[in-house]
């Protein structure tokens, strides 16, 4: 199928409007943000972005500027919900990224993870490039029991494991830009998810972010629990609330703050995982086995829900992905 890029460049905008247009495009892609160029009307920047399965892949080049965000949720592009982490890889140049209680000076190949549900600030006094991967919190929770602990860890390229991870990410950028229509690019989401899983180990960096007791943190705790038990057909809203020591009503309110009920969230996660498995499964793998493996216990409910979500049956979906 290939991976189509969406592109924006300030070169197509008159100098007086460049910062405003860049702020608007960045707000949609990352989270609400404001840009202050450090070179006046000489500001130049470009962004290319594409969807890779559940991930958003973003390439940024910018002249000296300061960008800041006071948002408490991710921008609408490449999202299913509003709760996302952002893996930031320094491609070239130097920049500083800061967020509530931590700051990281990034050199080429360094990696740091920011939280798009919290304000942040980025600054560079020279030309720089970044590769950004927008990661659903629910996906992060599959690879780490407490993804919030990953936020703010400065992972330097001097560590061979980090160098490997950043090399794979930057090579993915080069490959996507060189041959965006190649069918194999559809599998890059699994490759990049594997890289994220690699850096989730607790011996990578030090914890720098303290937890809060907000509804957002309750929702994230529930998200992590759901990710670990998605295969369990007995996973219910009441079971999640009981495990976390809150009432179902309390849990309901925490999710509704993000525009979705916990019951619908569980269903959406199961359907997304089923779609992923269908896209990589062999033709002789029974679709019913895939449905059962992600927690469905009723074939007709699975088929109906899948059709409503993706506009086709599971069998047709698999045939399209393999064609």
| Count of individual helical segments | 11
How many independent structural domains? Answer: 2
Structural class of the helix and strand makeup? Answer: alpha+beta
Helicity, as a percent range: 25-40%
| Arithmetic mean pLDDT | 88
Question: Per CATH, which architecture of the largest domain?
Answer: Sandwich
CATH superfamily name of the largest domain? Answer: Jelly Rolls
Supply the key terms.
323 residues; Jelly Rolls; Arc Repressor Mutant, subunit A; six-stranded antiparallel beta sheet; five-stranded antiparallel beta sheet; 11 helices; globular; DNA-binding; HTH_AraC; Helix-turn-helix domain-containing protein; sequence-specific DNA binding
